[in-house]
Structure formats: C-alpha cells, structure tokens
Secreted peptidase family S41
Amino acid sequence: MKLLPRNLSGYQATISLFTVTACLLSSVNADNSTDPCAAIARKKIATFTEAKACLQYFPFDKEAADQTLDTVHKIVTELYVFKDIAASPPKTKGLSVVPVDLEHGINIIRNQAWNSDQEFQDSISLLLDKVHDAHLAYSPYCYRQFLFWQPIQLNALIRNQRLVVNVAYVKNDVWPEAKESWVGCEVTKIDGRDAFDMVVDYAVNNNGESKDVNTCFNNIMNTKSYFHGWDDGADDLGYHRFLPAQEVHDYTLRCPSNGTSPSKEQFDEPFTVSIPWVAQVPQGFHSAKDYWTNYCYSGHSTFRKRSLSENEAVNAAVQMLDVDELTKIHNNHVFDLTPPAQNAGPDSSEGEYVHFAALEGENSKVGVIDIRSFSIANEDRDAFADNFTAGLESFEKKGIEKIIIDLSSNGGGDACAGEFIINTFFDATPEYASDVKYSPFLERVIKKSYETDSGKWIDYKSEKFKGAEWYTHPVEYERGGKSVNFSQPITLSCESWDSSLTAKRYNNKIWKASDLLILSDGRCGSTCAIVASRLRLSHLVPAMGLGGVRGNPMQFASFPGGESERLSGFLLELQSLGLQNDPDAPKPFPQRADMGWTFRESYRPAKDSDGPFGDSKNLLEYTATNADCRMHFTDENADDIEVLWGQVAQVVLKGQCPLKEE
Ligand SMILES: *[C@@H]1O[C@H](CO)[C@@H](O)[C@H](O)[C@H]1NC(C)=O
Ligand SMILES: *[C@@H]1O[C@H](CO)[C@@H](O)[C@H](O)[C@H]1NC(C)=O
Ligand SMILES: *[C@@H]1O[C@H](CO)[C@@H](O)[C@H](O)[C@H]1NC(C)=O
Ligand SMILES: *[C@@H]1O[C@H](CO)[C@@H](O)[C@H](O)[C@H]1NC(C)=O
C-alpha cells in the first residue's frame, strides 16, 4: 500500500511532541491484560500478533466509515481525472492495467460488515492501489505508525546470466536469529513457491506504484542498493508501515560454501527458515486510549454531523476547518517512527536535490547529474538554480562530453523546477497540454480563485481563453467508453517561478541530445515522469532502464498522469477561498487520514504531426514508452553506485544506447 507521495523533502517526525503528551498521560493506569496496546507500550519491538491485536482493537464505527467513504466517493467521482478510464482502460502493450470500477468498489466496502476499523480503513487503501496510479492513494495514519520488518531483505541480481533473488542484508537488530551468513545466499523458494514467481506476483498484485511491472518490482526490491530518498520504502516486500497479510514467511536458501563467492555456484545443502514479521513499536502511547488520541483522533470527527444539521438552519454559522490539523497532515508531521537511515549514495545530504559527479579514470569524459527530487522548497529555488548552473559550468571546464541524468527513485515535485532543467539543456518548448475534470463545484472554486487572484488555478494558461474561461467552457471527451467533461487544454505557466529567480542561467551550447542519457529504475514519477518523457519524446534523449524483470520491456518513467493534489492541501485552499462550506465540497476525514489524487491529465504527442503540444486522445498515463536499453543489478554494482555509474558510462562512451525508433 502506497504512502502518499511526499511534497516536502524532509521527513520530519513528531516524536518530541508525542513524548510530551505521553508523559502527561503516564499516570493513567493501563491494564495490560485487557488492553493489547498497553501490553506493548514502551517496548521497542513487538511480535506481529501483538501489534495486530493493538491495531485491531479499535472497533468499526459505521458512522465514521460512511463519512470517510462519502469523501472518498466525492473525490473519485468529481475530481479524480482518471475515474472513467480506470473502469475501462485501453489495452496498452507494456502496461499491466486491470479495469477498476472505483464507485462499485466503494459500494462493496460500504456494504460489508467489518470486524475492526483497521480492516475497513486498509480496504480503501487497497482499492485505490488497484488502479496502479501512485498519485491515487488513501493513507489512514492511525494504522501507519508501526514499522513492520522481515528480518531478511531481498534484492534481485544477475548472476551467471540468471536473475536471482538474493539476500541483500539481514536485520538482526529486530530479530537476533537472522544470521549475517545468509547475506549473498540465493532465495530459491518463498512459501514453497518459486521465489522469483512469488516476487513478480506480489509486484503485480500488491504494489500500486506503477502500471509497469518492472517498476513495481524495483519498488518492492533493491531498496538498500539503490535509494535516493523519495520513497521510504514502506510498501516493500519486506518492509511495511501497514499490517502484513500473514505472520511468517518460509524462505528456502541456497548459500555459497564457506570461502566461495556466490558466482562460483558451489552451494551448501539448501535449507528452509521460517521468518516472522517483526513490528517496531511507536513510542508515544501507554494505552489504546492514548494511541487513539495521539495517532488517530481528528478535530474533524464531528464536522459532518454539525454541517448536516446546519444545512437545515437558515443563516447557520460558518463551520471552520481545523487548520492546524490539516497543516500537520499536509507537512507529513504524522509519523512517530522515522524510517531507518538508508544507503543513499555518495555525499547524500538532506536538502540536496541534485548532485553533480564527474567520473574518473577511463570514464573521465562522463559526468552524472543525480536528480533526487524536484520538490524544491521556495527558499531553495535560487540555490537550486545556482547549483545547477555551477554544476554544468564545472562539467564544461572539466571537458565532460557525455552526461548521465540519473532520475531513479525521483518522486517528482515542482513542475517548474523540471521545466527549468529542460530549458537549461534545450530551447524552451511548451509543456504538453493537459486538462482538468469538469464539475460545477470546481467551477466555483476556480472562478473564486481568479476573482481573488489567489490559489494555484491562476497559474494555468490556455491558448484561446482568458481568465477562468478555460474551465467554464468544458469539452466532452470519450474516456473508458463514456462521455466526460473536461476543461479546455491548458499548460502550467512557470512565469512567476522563473521571475523569482535571480540566479544566472546556463546556456548549453555543448551537449546535444545524443550526448545525454536518462538513467532510471522506472521509479521516476509525477513531475519526474513528465520531464523524462519530454526529454525522451520531444528532445530525443535516449533512456536506459535499470533493474526490473529480465526480458520484460521496461519504461523509464511511471505515473506521468499530470498533477496531483491531496485532500489536506485542497481543504486548506478551500478555506482560504472561503469555500469550505460549499455544499459540494468534500468533507474532511473524521480520523487522521489523507487522500491523494490526480486532478490534471497530460496528453502525449502521438506522432510528429501533433507537434509538441499533445493530443487529448493520448494520455501519458495510459500510453507506454520503453527505455532504449537496459542494465541490471549485479553483485558488483548493487551496493556501489559509483561502480554502477561507471558501467553505465562505458555503455554511453561505446554508443551502445542509441535512441530506438518506435
Ligand atoms: C504493562 O507492561 C509494561 C511493560 O510491558 C509494564 O512496564 C507495566 O508496568 C505494565 N502495566 C501494568 C498495569 O501491568
Ligand atoms: C569459514 O572458513 C573459515 C576459514 O577459512 C573459518 O574461520 C570459519 O569459521 C568458517 N565459517 C563457517 C561458518 O564455517
Ligand atoms: C547547493 O550546493 C551546496 C554545495 O554542494 C549544497 O550544500 C547545497 O545544499 C545546495 N543547495 C541546494 C538548494 O541544492
Ligand atoms: C457536459 O457539459 C454539457 C454542457 O456544457 C452538458 O450538456 C453535458 O450534459 C455534459 N456532459 C456530461 C457527460 O456531463
């Protein structure tokens, strides 16, 4: 299950805040025998069963559940741009999309008798995951506080021409029985099934990250070996924030004989170990009561009830949203436990968005631009642009002839930061056109935004229409066999972003498209996906896919849908426009939770005659563009990004990754 894509680079925890609350409550006597949360409070580690008992202690509440589903339903039907095409998606070679009728799914959830609130909440997350659009996600933070670990962590490597499932590292800090000697062992079976089949199945069915199987596969594996810092990996095969489906997995391991390297393939007798999920316990609670207060309770639990009765009253007082709560959610200050430090590549430091590395030795003519995030904080814009210019100037000075643009595990961010990078290399080209789903409610929002000259809507531009007219003159398109109204085609204007920069701009006269290479493990999402797609489709920069399932053509980008929004931010915007009580506005969730969705769909140019503008019939999200060449992880490069970049540099220098004709 996906966590919502982050739009801030820092993963700030709120431990200090929770600790204060917990201390105040420490005099409360929790009964360990009847309160399963009290039984594990203050422990570092709990068993799967203990954690499950705490998470499932909170009863299903029909009224809160209906309120939650009403909001999910409203967002899906009125605001989610792919709702209709998701129910009847086009068959596209290379994409694994199954039809998902979200309205039907919501009805099924609504009519089911749930045993606990956790099971109900997670069923919503699972439903949205099925669409395989990482922008569409539901996160009930109440049930995302434990960290669940499999004490052995896997990656996938090519070894002697075979793709093998391998033990990358063990977590004996959470489970002392995990042995260091298992590292490097091949996993031949998981739960009695062929290990590779099991992992691919899991990637297809349990990971909503992308419509490309290779990308989902990379997302659940290889996290330690290739991690840039976007996704904390909380939906990996062996690392979750949500309650796993079963307590124990059986692994059959085939280990190299003592003193031999794995590639020698001299194995000891295979053996099978049963390995449990282990839960890292959040530290801010003493009992179920304060677990609920600290992690689940929302000031919005009564928003709906009051507004219903107020609807009947004339001149009812305007109900205000809890801005502190929404801001906290929007800034991701909702987790007690921070994710563990990961291997983030060389010189990684918090707040560094882009890293320039000139390679050495036989690769000294090759430079790498490692772009980790486009979520540039407003106050960092100038430094970001300055650094980019300085980086390219230093490459120029060093005589760098070829550039690898590493976009792996980049979850996107600010579209204008992406635009800046494209325009630094090439002459400015217009952004691909896009549109927003039409609804009378959103028309009121967008009109108000123009009237008050505030909010994000005023940054969109249409060729033919002025002001809010791009939205008030809807167009009908066919989506999934249905007629649906959308806005006129628009593009995002980066004028105000650009004009805020004082930094010097780099004017590239050195590197042609064929001197550049996009490197991506497929986990280049959102803004990153749009930047990569434009570089590849419009500017003809070749792309190399990394990892994934061998022999399965792979894309270099995922969830290029367009642009996403989160309920927390959307409600804050409504409040600032004074529209939070609009009868059609989605109501806040009654518990601490957030939802994300794509609200803008980007077109893809189908052929040259479309020009760079794109065609409303071809959506980037529902078309596939494969990488031009491919590289896999091996024993040599999996834990050493410098080695990996060196190998990619050799491919570039030998001209072995030319642009493929489609
Ligand atoms: C509950 O268990 C914790 C340790 O897990 C212990 O510190 C605490 O005193 C126990 N409380 C009661 C009421 O037994
Ligand atoms: C492996 O061999 C070395 C000597 O080559 C020995 O010291 C070590 O104990 C052996 N390890 C195991 C697990 O047998
Ligand atoms: C700019 O580069 C400096 C030096 O490498 C680094 O410390 C800083 O974090 C960078 N700033 C941004 C916004 O990328
Ligand atoms: C689209 O909008 C037009 C009016 O602009 C309306 O007549 C039509 O019914 C709408 N279509 C749908 C599918 O809502």
